[in-house]
Amino acid sequence: MYWQHVAGRKQKCLAHVRRTARDWKALALGGKHPQARQFFDDVIAWVQRGCRYHRQRKRGELLRAQDRAEQEWLRTELKRLEQVEVDHPKAATLQERLQTYHDDWLVFLDHPEVPPTNNLAEHALRPLVVLRKLTFGSRSRAGAERLANLLTVVETAKRHGHDVLAFLYKLLSRSPGRMLRFLYDTR
After folding, report:
1. Residue spans per domain, the chain
2. What percent of the chain has pLDDT over 90?
3. How do residues 39-67 score in pLDDT, each as one tens digit?
4. pTM above the 0.85 mark?
């Protein structure tokens, strides 16, 4: 559900839809409800194909005709998934979610710079979540905010290609304004 600042619309995470379809299929269905089983399988296949398309387009592996055909299939399949008959409440719930956010599932087709998942954001949060589990939390709201601020600075420095320890040393020994200019290379 990120990248609204780039595309003007938010991209809902396809990985979450896939995970929901996989989990609900295993949890709720067993050998019953063939329409719902097929629906969940089709949702999973649609997400996988969309993510594969995004990777192939990013690497420049698609001819123009292939690109158009994949985009058309992804759009058509979404419409079909939104309308297909289902025979289980979980499938109906997921189908309703697809309908409700119809315009947010395929933003990446019109904006190649937008990924179809928010995996980058989740991977960036993972170290914080692991640290929180290892240390049994921050123990106070102020401690949590300090840790969040520190890790924001660390991640920003990393993403701008700076040596984190050297950057933190400079941050503590120089003026904040000077460090912001250094961090964002605006001199």
Report:
1. 4-110, 119-183
2. 48
3. 999 999 999 999 999 999 999 999 999 99
4. no
- Identify the DSSP state of 138: -
Residue numbers in the chain where pLDDT is lower than 50: 1, 3, 186-187
Q: What is the pLDDT of residue 77?
A: 98
The residue written with tokens 């969040």 in the block is 148
Contacts of 165 (CB under 8 A, 6+ apart): none
Residues 150, 68: Cα–Cα separation, whole Å: 45
To the nearest 10°, report the CA torsion of 63, 65, 68, 73.
Answer: -110
List Cα–Cα distances, 172 to 3, 182, 186, in angstroms.
Answer: 32, 14, 19
Alpha helices in 59-160 (DSSP H): 64-83, 89-100, 107-110, 119-134, 141-159
Neighbours of 127 (CB within 10 A): 12
122-127 long-range contacts (CB < 8 A, ≥24 apart) are: 124/155, 127/151
